[in-house]
Design brief:
single chain, 241 residues, alpha/beta, Purple Acid Phosphatase, chain A, domain 2, 5-stranded mixed β-sheet, binds manganese (II) ion
């Protein structure tokens, strides 16, 4: 079987949703080993409060990712808006390679831009302000220096608050800004973009500098059954997990 490349995002793994953890472990054991590479484009975890947190399901996920990378499938991970505190220790424990917010890969001969997707939602100004602030070393050191129990409680509170907050925001500002998409593709010299975050799986056709371009939006696992985008030399397809 020719080896393919898989893309997934927005699993939002958490203790509250054990069926998604089970499905992901099944995917890591049965589907992912057939691929040469697996790209996880952010929000693998619904919350990440530091690499020293081994509360379930983090330990099991680490173990299965490590088994996969040991078996020869390369695994790459971008950080999402929920798990951006994930760091080098997690990477060392699992063999997973952390990627930058924007990464261009050569996908069977076509330069392809990968990103979580939150940076493209430029209409949500309060979020972008928080994002900038929370990516500073000072902010992160301040959070990570708190005792684990304090961080666990704060994460619970933050998730609850974000749940109510999100319901008030309009659907439009939660989606990507089209101008930002085009500017970003032009900046990176790509005509293909793969991202997640918006939980609106689709394949959008657009035109950049008179050339056709495509934007692939990955599905969230907590809404749908969970799916992966797979590519090989000839074609791509969505696979239900
Ligand atoms: Mn997200």
């Amino acid at each position: 079987m020719p080896q393919d490349i898989l893309f997934i995002s927005d699993l939002h793994l958490s203790l509250d949703k054990p069926e998604i953890t089970r499905r992901f472990i099944h995917f890591l054991e049965n589907r992912a080993p057939q691929a040469s590479a697996l790209y996880i484009l952010g929000d693998l975890f619904d919350a990440w409060i530091g690499d020293d947190d081994f509360t379930p399901p983090n330990g099991a996920i680490r173990k299965h990712l490590k088994q996969l990378t040991d078996s020869g499938t390369r695994v790459y991970l971008q950080l999402g808006n929920r798990d951006f505190l994930l760091g080098q220790r997690f990477s060392q424990d699992t063999g997973v390679v952390l990627l930058g917010d924007y990464t261009v890969i050569d996908l069977f001969g076509t330069p392809t831009l990968l990103t979580h997707g939150d940076l493209l939602c430029t209409d949500d100004i309060p979020y972008q302000t928080f994002r900038t602030q929370s990516r500073t070393l000072e902010w992160q050191q301040n959070v990570l220096s708190k005792p684990l129990l304090v961080r666990l409680l704060a994460a619970r509170w933050y998730r609850l608050r974000s749940f109510f907050h999100k319901r008030k925001k309009s659907q439009d500002i939660m989606d990507v800004n089209q101008d930002t998409v085009i500017d970003t593709l032009q900046k990176y010299g790509c005509f293909r973009l793969i991202h997640g975050h918006t939980h609106r799986p689709a394949i959008h056709n657009l035109t950049i500098d008179g050339q056709p371009a495509q934007r692939f939006v990955l599905a969230a696992w907590h809404k749908q059954a969970g799916d992966a985008l797979s590519w090989n030399q000839d074609t791509y397809q969505r696979e239900v997990i």
